[in-house]
Automatic annotation (TrEMBL):
Quaternary assembly: Binds to the N-terminal domain of the chaperone ClpA.
Family note: Belongs to the ClpS family.
Species name: Deinococcus taklimakanensis
Keyword presence, Protease: yes
Protein purpose: Involved in the modulation of the specificity of the ClpAP-mediated ATP-dependent protein degradation.
Gene designation: clpS
Listed NCBIfam families: PRK00033.1-5 (NF000672)
Domain Adaptor protein ClpS core: 25-102
Gene Ontology molecular functions: peptidase activity
Protein's UniProt name: ATP-dependent Clp protease adapter protein ClpS
GO biological process, one term: proteolysis
Family annotation (InterPro entries): ClpS, ClpS_core, Ribosomal_bL12_C/ClpS-like
Location of the region described as Disordered in the Swiss-Prot/TrEMBL record: 1-22
Length: 110
């Protein structure tokens, strides 16, 4: 057993070089709300405000995109965050009896 302050046996002495690893930003995922004929528009706005922290005006714009274009981007996140938001919103929608569909898909790489 070595005592504090004493050199350890077999330890190399000299210069230590550190390798730098290249880091990349994580791939981002888009959370999309999909249109259906049954989920009320005000519920979609509520979801956008509560889970995606949209202002009422921004939530209205996304809701209208969902209604007119078939889908709208609720937000862009890392994969774990996107999947968590999808699960939370789907659970809330099911609890309230709405068939709202929410999906996450990877953003196109630049």
């Amino acid at each position: 057993m070595t005592r504090p302050g004493s050199p350890t046996r077999g330890a190399e002495r000299g210069t230590q070089t550190l390798e730098r690893t290249e880091t990349h930003r994580p791939r981002l995922w888009r959370v999309l709300l999909l249109n259906d004929d049954y989920t009320p528009m005000d519920f979609v706005v509520l979801v956008l405000e509560r889970y995606f922290r949209k202002s009422e005006q921004d939530a209205q714009l996304v809701m209208l995109a969902v209604h007119h274009k078939g889908q709208g981007v609720a937000g862009v996140y890392t994969r774990d965050v996107a999947e968590t938001k999808v699960a939370q919103v789907m659970a809330h929608a099911r609890h309230e009896g709405h068939p709202l569909m929410v999906v996450a898909e990877p953003e196109a790489e630049a």
